């Protein structure tokens, strides 16, 4: 008892520096997928490679010169790309099986991607024309849609985890 | 009910008659789709058959090997697997010893820029097409010296290409004007004044005067301003102001033997005793070197040697 009291006393009187030390948790979660219990979660190539693999195993989804040294309009380009992605996802609802790829050359915007053939060709042609027309009107520059079609969403699956 | 059964009978008859022309043995199919097409219900919404809608085979399978490729792929375009008859693969294999992902349904191939429109044949065709807009090279400009002689002023501007809707770049306004100093008819005092005016814009190694103009907002204005600057510099150098005669030898940037006190002293000495003109020449060169290049072991030794020779105290 006495020793405990002494110990307490010494703790109160002597100055102490209390530093909480523990291992740093270098957990990275963004853009990564947890394996499922059965190991049957389908991943595309884009999903299977994490953000750290950009420029190693996969490339960027936006191609432009805005963020290079001396590039113009970096902020506007990002906002426009966000808008284009939102528009594409909403207009081509549940049709895109890949990310929306936006490539800019001079004032031309090329939008590429892989879509499912679950709607008729007529509807798809209408959607292409509609998208190009509306985006050209809003962004004030020519927009081209260059799509590839697949029969099934399974065609773009790279692996299961 | 009666009406309905009659309608069905009519449909059967109609089916019977259409099939008659195609098949030899006609089968009366009372319940349409009962045995063969089990998955095709009679409902309004039919389940999509396996394999999707009937599609033509990819274009690449029908391409002849000697086709005209520049007309198949005339301009820059995102990669399309059905149009490119090459067994291209891209990506990292999912498992070891597996092949990389193929070209169909491969988004990676659609991302990277391709140069399928820049085949040698396409480039040659393009050059042929724009050839009629080219003019022959002037026959007088046979070599680099002739170019410098007839076009002494060199103007450099930069155009910037961005992937953005704007074609403007503030850096495009900058104009660099270069002129060889020897191409300007400047001698002695005028040349000295010109060099004093342009300061660090003159490169003595290449004999080039470089004027960079970026103060005006447009390139055209900057170009005019650079021409104006060159004109003004030249005319100011040619002009001799009254105060320029007040320049003393000490203001010279380089030592000059002809106007120096040393020459006066040597001339005075030459009156009293005979001096070898060759040695005077050597002495003047050594002294000029010493004053202009600075004191180092070599120039000092040269100076000492020439002075001793001049005064007849050479050790040789």
From TrEMBL, chain A:
A UniProt-annotated Pfam family: MRP-S24
Coiled-coil stretches: none
Principal cellular location given in the protein's record: mitochondrion
Subcellular location: Mitochondrion
Record flagged with keyword GTP-binding: no
Superkingdom per UniProt: Eukaryota
Keywords (A to Z) from UniProt: Mitochondrion, Ribonucleoprotein, Ribosomal protein, Transit peptide
Gene Ontology BP terms: translation
A GO term from the CC aspect: ribosome
Family: Belongs to the universal ribosomal protein uS3 family.
PANTHER family tied to this protein: MITOCHONDRIAL 28S RIBOSOMAL PROTEIN S24 (PTHR21244), SMALL RIBOSOMAL SUBUNIT PROTEIN US3M (PTHR21244:SF1)
Protein's name according to its UniProt entry: 28S ribosomal protein S24, mitochondrial
Organism phylogeny: Eukaryota, Metazoa, Ecdysozoa, Arthropoda, Hexapoda
From TrEMBL, chain B:
Signal peptide: none
Gene Ontology biological process: mitochondrial translation
GO cellular component: mitochondrial small ribosomal subunit
One Pfam family named in its UniProt record: MRP-S28
Molecular function (Gene Ontology), one example: structural constituent of ribosome
Disordered, as annotated region: 34-65
UniProt xrefs under InterPro entries: Ribosomal_mS35_mit, Ribosomal_mS35_mt
Small ribosomal subunit protein mS35 mitochondrial conserved domain sequence ranges: 169-258
Record protein name field: Small ribosomal subunit protein mS35 mitochondrial conserved domain-containing protein
Organism annotation: Cloeon dipterum
């Amino acid at each position: 008892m006495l020793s405990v009291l002494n110990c307490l006393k010494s703790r109160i009187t002597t100055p102490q520096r209390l530093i909480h030390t523990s291992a740093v948790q270098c957990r990275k979660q963004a853009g990564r997928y947890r394996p499922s219990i059965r190991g049957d979660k389908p991943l595309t190539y884009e999903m299977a490679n994490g953000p750290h693999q950009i420029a190693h195993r996969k490339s960027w989804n936006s191609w432009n010169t805005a963020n290079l040294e001396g590039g113009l309009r970096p902020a506007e380009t990002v906002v426009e790309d966000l808008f284009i992605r939102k528009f594409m996802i909403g207009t081509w609802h549940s049709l895109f099986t890949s990310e929306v790829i936006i490539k800019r050359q001079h004032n031309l915007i090329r939008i590429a991607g892989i879509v499912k053939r679950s709607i008729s060709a007529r509807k798809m042609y209408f959607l292409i024309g509609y998208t190009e027309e509306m985006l050209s009107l809003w962004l004030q520059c020519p927009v081209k849609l260059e799509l590839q079609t697949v029969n099934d969403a399974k065609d773009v699956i790279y692996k299961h985890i | 009910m009666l009406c309905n059964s009659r309608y069905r009978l009519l449909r059967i008859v109609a089916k019977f008659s259409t099939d008659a022309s195609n098949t030899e043995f006609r089968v009366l199919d009372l319940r349409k789709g009962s045995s063969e097409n089990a998955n095709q219900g009679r409902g309004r919404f039919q389940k999509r058959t396996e394999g999707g809608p009937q599609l033509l085979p990819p274009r690449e399978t029908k391409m002849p090997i000697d086709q005209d490729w520049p007309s198949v792929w005339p301009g820059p375009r995102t990669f399309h697997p059905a149009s490119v008859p090459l067994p291209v693969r891209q990506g990292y294999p999912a498992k070891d010893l597996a092949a990389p992902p193929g070209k169909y349904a491969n988004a990676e191939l659609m991302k990277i820029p391709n140069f399928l429109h820049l085949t040698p044949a396409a480039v040659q065709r393009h050059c042929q097409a724009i050839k009629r807009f080219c003019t022959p090279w002037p026959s007088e400009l046979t070599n680099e010296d002739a170019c410098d002689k007839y076009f002494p002023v060199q103007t450099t501007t930069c155009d910037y290409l961005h992937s953005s809707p704007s074609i403007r770049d503030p850096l495009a306004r900058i104009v660099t004007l270069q002129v060889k100093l020897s191409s300007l008819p400047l001698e002695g005092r005028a040349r000295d004044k010109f060099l004093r005016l342009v300061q660090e814009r003159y490169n003595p190694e290449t004999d080039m005067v470089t004027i960079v103009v970026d103060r005006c907002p447009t390139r055209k204005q900057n170009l005019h301003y650079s021409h104006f600057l060159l004109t003004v510099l030249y005319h100011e150098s040619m002009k001799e102001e009254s105060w320029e005669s007040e320049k003393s030898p000490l203001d010279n940037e380089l030592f000059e033997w002809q106007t120096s006190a040393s020459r006066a002293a040597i001339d005075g000495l030459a009156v009293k005793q005979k001096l070898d003109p060759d040695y005077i020449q050597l002495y003047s060169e050594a002294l000029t070197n010493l004053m202009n290049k600075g004191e180092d072991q070599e120039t000092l030794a040269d100076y000492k040697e020439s002075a001793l020779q001049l005064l007849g105290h050479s050790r040789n």
